[in-house]
Structure formats: structure tokens, C-alpha cells
Amino acid sequence: MKKLGGKVLFLDKDDINTDELIPAKYLNEDSKKALGPYCLEDLSAPGFDRARDLPGKGAIVSRANFGCGSSREHAPWALEANGINVVVAESFARIFRRNMYNCGMVAAELPKAVIEELFSRFSGQETVMELDAEKGEILFSSTRAGILKLPLSIGEFELAMVRSGGWVEFAAKRY
Amino acid sequence: MHAIEKILAQAAGKKSVSTGEIVTAGVDVAEVNDLYLQVVTSFYQLGGTKVKKPQGTTFVFDHYAPAPTIKAADNHRAMREFCAAQGIDKLFDVGRGVCHQVLIEDGLVAPGAIIIETDSHTTTLGALGAFGTGVGATDMALILLNGSLWFRVPEVMKIVLDGGPLSPGVMAKDIILHIIGDLKQDAAIYKCVEFTGPAVAALPVEERLVLCNMSVEMGAKTAYIQPDAKTWEYLAKMGVSKATRDVATDPDYVYSSVHHYDVSKIRPSAATPGSVDNFATVQSEQGVHVDQIFIGTCTGGRVNDLAVAAKILKGKKVAKGTRLVIIPASDKVMRDAMAAGYVQSLMEAGAAFSTPGCGPCLGAHEGILAAGEVGLTTSSRNFPGRMGSIDSKLYVVSPATAAASAISGTLTDPASLQGEAG
Questions:
Q1: DSSP label at B345?
Q2: Which of A121, A129, A137, B341 lies in disulfide reach of A59, CB 3.0 to 4.6 Å?
Q3: What is the phi/psi pair of residue B71, to 5°?
Q4: Domain ranges of chain A
Q5: Fold of A4-174
């Protein structure tokens, strides 16, 4: 399985919508990669500076109802184009969550208290997330705050998507 | 079982289903809109050669139509070619209107049908007793390939609308803004929202569509209103006389939650800039200067909406310093509104009309807001930058509030226009 996670982008806001993930004016771009430069262009979240915070990240930690709004699958594509393949949040909007797994990416829920702990312990520091989807384990670490290891289970079907790298790849192997 | 569980069970060839179960159900109607050329790309990447149900597959050009850019034009052309190659006759090209409205008018939406579209507002169709939900490109490509898709059987939340009649100037839009403001944006994630009660029964079908349309702004997977005589009367006009699956909820079904609202207490309402659950009464925001007012979309661009606006604006003028953009939800809406004289009244008042479709709802074209501008919209979303500049401000309101505000150029409670409000 590909490496899941990486340096963490903390987005301290509920209800981050797909217009914020990728504005509609770019939805006609003809490749997933072309969406990359516009990802999170319109997002205003506490402490978030796009130019400083987005480059080099591999994972996002956020709050409730992440990915609400439009059905656009361009939202996971825009994240993928920036090297992000895991989002951990309190809850997700349904279509976004489904689109993530269809693209072989992870949208995983953690309890509100755990998310709160992640923010209070790690945000503002260079933090790395490592997700072992097979083992059902997620690990956060930073020089200052040390290591936090948590169980994180992903459903069987979703795990199959992640293992394959998405539906297209899943189908290529199965059919 | 709930009616929507029966729909899913029958479409999956099962006797019964229960909440949380995953079922693979046949899709009766699939719709791809013009943001999604990736559906075609993914279909071929998935190994597809022939679309499984070309007669149950539709394409609608609405989000970027007429094409505002060369890329959009290229995408439209590639989709036209795909439809021709696959024998898909139901291609609703430029100017036919917004996908949900177009499918209804074409008689493709019947009670008990499973209708999947590449648009989140597919929940609209629940107002006609159909199971409608939105998906992304990969899921849609799978439907084109297999004619079916997997679904998790959702919990059902019941919203009971009691009381009535509605106060002066109040529309279904005000009711749903009030509910979302109360329950918040994530209240219905993964769930079906059912609307019921005497005040729902009293609403015309066009207004019921607004309730189900905006359920997705609470996170709903789908929405539902049990069809009644009004539903069938409305459907008959679209040439629909038969349910795809004839279902009703069992009396012993247990809802995940039940919420009651007395609609007679609801006043003209707004979602203030930034988020659709930022609730305020229009009264409390009165006097805010408005640069652009947009009446249109799958939420607020039907004949009833134009009728309400025309009644308020007839013989009046749009205020200097304010522009009114109107985009009917479909060409049928536009023709019906012309036949009734609404378009003429609105144009005489100073409205600018544009081609039926989504218009500026998603900030693509036909009425983008500049930095510092304030907009009013009868559409469904006011996320930062949704209709243009990130430094613009957008209020979501009803068509009555939009029209009343056009006269003064400031946010105006339609109830304050004595005897003139819808």
C-alpha cells in the first residue's frame, strides 16, 4: 500500500466546504493536476496562511462536517494534486467522504475529544501523521509534543479502495 | 420499514433492508452535468465500452452553459460526442435549464424512482417521492458501467411542520432557512430528511421542492415527502401518471429523531454572509445596501418564484445602484412565466434575464460579485467567495425578499410592503 499521511495541515474550523477546497471557477480544468494551484484558495481559517502552510503537507486534521456543500469530486483531486491523501476530522459530509475513498484516499473520523487533543497538543508545530490502514493505527508525532498513537479503523470495502489506490485501479485488478 | 427503505429494498431485489445496511440497487435515472467530463474519462478507465442503460442516462448542460470559456466549450463538445457514440438521446443542451428541474419537466421523476445525479441538490426530487441523491465522478462512472450503485440505508429524520397559515411574505425558503439555522449544517449527515405535517400538505409542490432541495445544506443524503393528491396533479402536468415503486412508510417505523416547527411563527428569513446556517430575520438586517440581486436556480427559480417577484415588482423600478439578475430554472419556466406576463413585468422593472441554467450560483459566470459588493440570492449557498470575490458578501433569501429589496436597493422585509407581498 502507498504511504498514507505526512506532514499535517491543521485546519481549525467546522464546516469546511468544497468551494473552499476548490472554487467552482476551476472545475473545468481538464486534469486533476491542474487543480492543484487553486486548492484552499478561498479558505479563511484561524491561523491558516495558504502560502506558508499548504506546501509539503500530506495530511489534514480538521473539525466537524468537513467537505460539505457541492458534490464535486474535484475536491479530493485538488488535495491529491498537493500531495495530501488523508483527512482526519470529527465528521465528514457524505459525498466528499465517498469521493475520497473512490479516489483511494482516506477520510477518517475520530471522536471530538481526540480531535481536540490533537489541536491542543500538536497544532502550531511541525507534526507528522503516519497512518497504517492495514493495522488500523494512526500515529502523530512532533519534536516537542512527542508521539501519540491511536486506533483508527477503516471499513473493509473502504480499505480495499485505499489498498488499490481508488476505484479505477480496484476495477483494473478485479475485472 | 420507511418508504425510502422500501424503495432501496425493491431496487436491490430484497424483501427488506435495515438502517446501516449496504445494498446494491439499480439506478432508474442517472444524470451527468457539464462539470463532469471526468465521468466519461473514468468510464473508459474503468474498462467501459458501452453504457449499460443508455435510455436511463441523461446529460444536462447547466453549470457552465452557454460555455463561458474555451475549456467549457471543449468539455461540452466531448460530452455531445459521448452521447452520440453511446446512443444517449437525453442530452439537454445549452438553455434547457438546471438538471433537477429539467428531469422533472421531462417526466423522468416519478415516486419511488432512484435518481442519481452528479449534483448535491438531487435531494430536491424527494419532494415528489423519489429517492434522489448526489454523487461524484467515480460513482457516476460506475453507474454508467453497471446500471447500479451501492448505498448505505440511511437513518430518517422527521421534520413536522405544524400550524399555518404562513405569515405575510413568508415562503418555503424562509421555513427551510429557519430550520437549518436551528438544526445547523451537519444535523442530517448520511440521513434522509422527511418533511410532513399539515403545513407541508398545505404547500404547493413547487414550494415543497425548496424544502427538499435545501436539505442537503444540513448534510442530508436524501429527502422525502410522501406523495399526495397535489403531487399527482403536479406530476400529471409532466406526463407522469404511475409510480416507479408504490411505497409508504409503515406505522411502526422508528425515526432517528423528530423535530416540530410551527410555521405561523416563522418570519421572512435570511442566511447572513458566510454560511447557510447563519440565521437572521430579514427584519433585523433591514437597510443593508445591496449591489446585486439574483433570482434563479434549482432552489429559487421556478414559475412560482417569478410569480411572487413579478407581483411585488409590477409597476415598480429596481432601485438605482442595484442590479437585478433573473435566470429561470428552465426554458419551460421561462415560457410559462412569459405566458403569464411575469417576465414582461420584471423586465419593465429593470431586471436583466439570462439563459436558463445555474447562472452565478456557483460563481462561474453571468453575475459574479466584485470585492466589497453585497449580493442577495434566492439560491442555496453563501459560502465565502461562492458567487465571486472572496471579499463580497452574500445573503440567501426568498424570492419575495429579493424582489422587495430590489425596489429599495436595501434588504427589505416583504411583509413591510403592505398588501403587495406574495
A1: H
A2: A129
A3: -60, -45
A4: 4-174
A5: Aconitase; domain 4 (3.20.19)
Reported ipTM: the value is: 0.93
pLDDT at B7: 98
What's the pLDDT score for residue A170?
81
Buried (b) or exposed (e) across B230-256, using 16+ Cβ within 10 A? ebbebbeebebeebbbebebeeeeebe
Residue B422: pLDDT above 60? no
E strand or H helix at A100, and its extent? helix A94-102
Query: Which residue, among B118, B138, B217, would best test binding to A if mutated, counting the most A CBs under 10 Å from its CB?
Result: B138
Q: Is B389 exposed, middle or buried (0-12, 13-18, 19+ CB in 10 A)?
A: middle
> Any idea which residue has 476505484 for its cell?
A167
In which residue are the cell numbers 403592505 written?
B418
Contact B121, B380 (CB under 8 A): yes
The answer on pLDDT for B364 being more than 80 is: yes
Contacts 24+ apart (CB under 8 A), B258-262: B258/B157, B258/B158, B258/B159, B258/B160, B259/B157, B259/B158, B259/B159, B259/B160, B259/B179, B259/B183, B260/B160, B260/B162, B260/B197, B261/B159, B261/B160, B261/B161, B261/B162, B261/B163, B261/B175, B261/B178, B261/B179, B261/B182, B262/B162, B262/B163
- Which DSSP string corresponds to A121-160? HHTTS--EEEEETTTTEEEEEETTTEEEEEE----HHHHH
pTM of the predicted model as reported, rounded to 2 decimal places: 0.96
| Chain A positions with Cβ closer than 8 Å to B | 14-15, 17, 19-20, 23-25, 27-30, 42, 44, 64-65, 68-74, 91-95, 98-99, 102-103, 157, 166-168, 171-172, 175
Residue A2 pLDDT more than 90? no
Give yes or no for a contact between B372 and B291, defined as CB atoms under 8 angstroms apart.
no
Strand ranges across the sheet with A146-151: A106-109, A86-89, A57-61, A4-10, A128-132, A137-142, A146-151
Length of chain A: 175
